[in-house]
Structures are given as structure tokens and as C-alpha cells.
Design goal:
- The chain contains 18 helices and twelve strands.
- By secondary structure, the chain is of the alpha/beta class.
- Strands 7-6-5-8-9-12-11 form a seven-stranded mixed sheet, with helices on both faces. It has a three-stranded mixed sheet with strand order 1-2-3, with no helix packed on it. Strands 4-10 form a two-stranded antiparallel ribbon.
- It starts with 24 loop residues before the first helix and ends in a 6-residue tail after the last strand.
Length: 410
């Protein structure tokens, strides 16, 4: 499917061409359901939505709900069938298919995030089939896609602002502020032997090299390695930074400091222990680890085990956000590291995601020219809005953590 999109928000425009069934099979096909089951799902969902601070209009009828952002359901039958069959995964696929819209998409998703249990019964909130992740980035995260919504630092993680609301021109400085704070936590300076797990665009490695550190940064793909090497070379720090593609468990050496930004989420719960054991193994005595990670409440983590969410299905296969409790449990019981500091700044991630989403919408025409079809654009818009809603509702958080290792006794 190839369509020309205007810079108007995809949350206000329904797909104008048939969905490509081979690329988007679960979006192209509405799950089969009997009339009885569809009707039952419809009654349940109508009743649940009617009790929320939201307005929902089904097929152009009168809105239900207690007031708030408006959700327009164009195809109620398909909408009910998808939620009945797939719960919240079906909700996302229904949006991708253009079966519902919202001018204030984040506002609608924020309400739904705050009342998730009321909307969909627990067994239907996720689809079965958790997958292992090798820690590699989403296959969609090409350099071309990143350039459509990130600032010039190409940093794909939460920024740290001086205040709200933020403007687009402040985003790069806010990313530098976040990176510098992590480097300060790890006490990175002249002569520091630094390991970075998760290279990203190479921005953190460059700023560490500017401080006089020597950096080994471990990329998650050859494309990420190529991008980082190019940016590091252009910055003039080839002699201070090495970029390798390697599984984090196979990293060798001993380092004064380690920094890792939003990598825990992608490696999968089954690899969390190995991740922290690796930090312990390669960190020199007296060393420091500065991490940034998104988190979810521990009860939501427990409920997520063994299931697959919309985000895991379409954005980060096998990934899972940890809880602060899960991290502390692994660190204190499985490693020789100590959790020495923690700082939360969830509202900053919400603001970062808003700026990304607005920039992505603004670059709609470029997305089409690069071959990102309309369903992909709706998927990515939903992803950014869904994550922003999580941070605005408080159901998600982002933290910077400091881990330390004792000096060896004389």
C-alpha cells in the first residue's frame, strides 16, 4: 500500500487504501466471532467506557461516558470483535486499521491507561506468546525512521528538561543534560576506562570522549555500529572510542565505569540477571554504574509475565519493562553491586515523547517518500502516544540508577 499523507495527524485520518495483508495480517483481518460473542463484548466494552471520564461515539451516535476527550469508533462491530478476541492488543490493532480515531489521542489513551482493568477483563488484556529478545533494537528502528522524529543528537531515550512545557528547539540540549548527568553519576572524566552497553547513535560515547575518557561501546546491530562510527569519526574521537557489535554477556575487560541507557527493557526478563551479573563481572572494584531505565509497577510486571502486549508484538519483540523492585532484587541478591542512588523523572519522558510525536507528524510527507506505509505511520503514532499516556498517567516511570562496587581490602 502506498498513499500520500498530509502533515495532518494520523490520529485524525483513516486509511485510504486496503491494508497490505502480507505485511499486516492481524490488522487486515478482523478476528472471527459469532454474533452472540460480539454482542456480549460490545455490551461489556460500552458499559466499561460509559463509566470513564471520556466520551465515546459509536458509529456516529450519541457519545457515552462521563465527559473528556472524544473517541470516535467508526466500525463498532470490528472494534468489539478485536477487543473481544485480543483485549488491549486488539485495541491497538483496531486503531492501526482506522476503526477508531481520537483528535486527542494521548488524552484518550491516558484515560484508558488509568482504567485498564475496568476496560478489559484480565485474561484478555494481553495475547499469549511471550518471546525471547536478544537485546537488539526493533527492526523498524532504521536511521531513516529515527531521523523523522528525533533531534540532531539522534538520541532515542528520555531527555531531561529544565521545565515544562518544552519546545522542539530545547530537545537536543535536554538530551545532553540527561547524558551529562549519567556521566557525572558514573564520575566519568579524563582517563576513565568506560564501557557503554547499548551504543545508540554514539552520542554518549562522544560526550564521554570529550571529557577525556576512553570508551568501549557495545552496539546492538551493525547498522547502529555504522551510524555511531560515522558520528564518532565526524566528531574527531576515533582514537578514544571503539564500537563493537557483541552480545553483552561476551564483553571482556575491566572498566572504571559503566553507563547503559534504556537497554534493560529490550533484553527480556530472562536475561536481566545475566545483564547485571555482566556489570558486576567487568566493573573494577571501586567502580560505578549509571543506568537509565523505564519501569512499571511491580504488580503490573507480575501480571505481564508469560504474555505478549501490543508493544511486544509490534515494537519490541520479547522486551519487557522491569520494576524498581525487580531490579533491586537482582542487584542485591545476585551481584556484589550496591544500589547507591535512584532518581525518577517520568514527566520528562512524557514531554520527550510529545515532542517526538509532533515531529513525526510534521514529517508525514517524508515518511511516505521513504516507503513507510500508512498503517506503519498509524502504528508508530499509536506507539508514541501510548507510551506518552503511560508516563502521563503514572503507570510508567523512568529512573536513573547508581550502582557501586566496593574497593578491594588492603
Amino acid at each position: 500500500m502506498s498513499v500520500s499523507l498530509s502533515p495532518a495527524s494520523w490520529s485524525q485520518a483513516r486509511p485510504t487504501a486496503p491494508v497490505a495483508a502480507r505485511r499486516w495480517p492481524d490488522v487486515a483481518t478482523v478476528p472471527p466471532s459469532s454474533r452472540l460473542r460480539t454482542a456480549a463484548a460490545g455490551r461489556r466494552v460500552r458499559h466499561a467506557l460509559g463509566a470513564l471520564p471520556i466520551r465515546v461515539r459509536f458509529g456516529g451516535g450519541d457519545p457515552v461516558g462521563r465527559g473528556g476527550p472524544l473517541m470516535e469508533v467508526h466500525d463498532p462491530d470490528a472494534f468489539f470483535r478485536r477487543i473481544g478476541a485480543g483485549g488491549l492488543v486488539g485495541l491497538g490493532e483496531s486503531y492501526m486499521a482506522g476503526e477508531w480515531e481520537a483528535r486527542d489521542l494521548v488524552g484518550v489513551l491516558t484515560v484508558l491507561a488509568q482504567h485498564e482493568a475496568a476496560l478489559v477483563r484480565r485474561p484478555l488484556q494481553r495475547t499469549r506468546g511471550a518471546q525471547h529478545s536478544d537485546g537488539r533494537p526493533s527492526p523498524y528502528l532504521s536511521g531513516e525512521l529515527l531521523a523523522l522524529f528525533l533531534d540532531e543528537t539522534l538520541t532515542y531515550s528520555s531527555a531531561l528538561f529544565r521545565g515544562f512545557p518544552a519546545e522542539q528547539y530545547l530537545l537536543a540540549a535536554a538530551q545532553h543534560r540527561k547524558t551529562d548527568r549519567l556521566l557525572d553519576l558514573a564520575q566519568v572524566g579524563s582517563g576513565t576506562q568506560l564501557l557503554e552497553l547499548g551504543t545508540g547513535s554514539g552520542e554518549l560515547a562522544i560526550r564521554a570522549a570529550q571529557r577525556g575518557a576512553r570508551v568501549l561501546t557495545v552496539a546492538q546491530s551493525s547498522e547502529q555500529q555504522e551510524l555511531a562510527r560515522r558520528r564518532i569519526r565526524d566528531a574527531g574521537f576515533e582514537n578514544r572510542v571503539s564500537v563493537l557489535v557483541r552480545d553483552f554477556g561476551r564483553v571482556l575487560g575491566r572498566f572504571d565505569a559503566i553507563v547503559s541507557v534504556e537497554m534493560i527493557e529490550a533484553v527480556g526478563e530472562e536475561c536481566w540477571a545475566q545483564y547485571f551479573l555482566t556489570l558486576d563481572r567487568v566493573l573494577a572494584p571501586g567502580g560505578r554504574v549509571a543506568l537509565q531505565t523505564s519501569t512499571m509497577p511491580h504488580d503490573r510486571l507480575l501480571a505481564s509475565r508469560g504474555n505478549r502486549t501490543w508493544t511486544q508484538k509490534y515494537i519490541v519483540p520479547g522486551g519487557l519493562l522491569p520494576s524498581a523492585e525487580a531490579i533491586e532484587h537482582i542487584v542485591t541478591r545476585r551481584t556484589g553491586l550496591s544500589l547507591a542512588g535512584r532518581d525518577s523523572f517520568g514527566p520528562h519522558y512524557a514531554e520527550t515523547l510529545r515532542l517526538w510525536r509532533e515531529r513525526f507528524t510534521h514529517n508525514a510527507a517524508h515518511a511516505d517518500a521513504l516507503g513507510f506505509d500508512e498503517i506503519f505511520c498509524r502504528m508508530w503514532t499509536f506507539h508514541l502516544a501510548h507510551m506518552e499516556a503511560g508516563f502521563r498517567s503514572g503507570t510508567l516511570d523512568v529512573q536513573q540508577l547508581l550502582l557501586t562496587k566496593e574497593e578491594l581490602a588492603d
